[in-house]
Amino acid sequence: MVDDFPYPEQDTSTRHWESDEHHKETKKRQRERKTGKIMFKKKVNYDNIARQVRTASCCSKQCIQCILKISDIFRTREWFLKKSREAQGQFLLNFFQVSRRSKGQNTVYVHTLERKYVCQKAWIFSHGIAYGRYVL
User: Strand, helix or coil at 68?
Assistant: First the structure.
């Protein structure tokens, strides 16, 4: 009885997910993503940043709202996110080397943005990176 039901013949050779070209292209993109040769470019939107600034909190000085301008954050994010993931990582390593200061036995990092001293949370927020990436 089941054999009586008419099934249309399907041509599986034309499916894009089974073609060798598509498979090779997908694997190539995955390799590039892992090695940092390409970075998914995040669209930096001025209105989105303005909305995030209104809800963000950092320290008692309120660096994000009071010290930084939205245009400062916009320029910084745009500049940072244009870089490849590898270049971003190198920038962070250089930042840790250059901004390191010793205060007695403690190590302190000086966070500056557009020649303004800001707290760590404001610096991370301005660059648009996750806190986990900053501490690693």
Answer: coil
Residue 8 has pLDDT above 60, yes or no: no
Alpha carbons 70 and 66: distance in angstroms, whole number: 10
Q: Which H or E run includes 98? A: helix 85-98
Q: Which residue has the higher pLDDT, 77 or 13?
A: 77
Mean pLDDT score of the chain, rounded to an integer?
Answer: 79
Say if 75 falls within a structural domain.
yes
**Enclosing domain of residue 57:** 17-135
58 C-beta neighbours (distance < 10 Å), count = 20
Place of tokens 């309120």: 62
Q: Is the pTM of this model over 0.85?
A: no
Q: What is the mean pLDDT of residues 43-72?
A: 89
DSSP 10-59: --GGG-TTTSHHHHHHHHHHHHHHHHTS---PPPP-HHHHHHHHHH----
Orientation angle between helical segments 70-82 and 120-127, nearest 10 degrees: 60
Strands (E), 83-133: 100-103, 106-109, 112-113, 116-117
Q: How many domains does the chain have?
A: 1
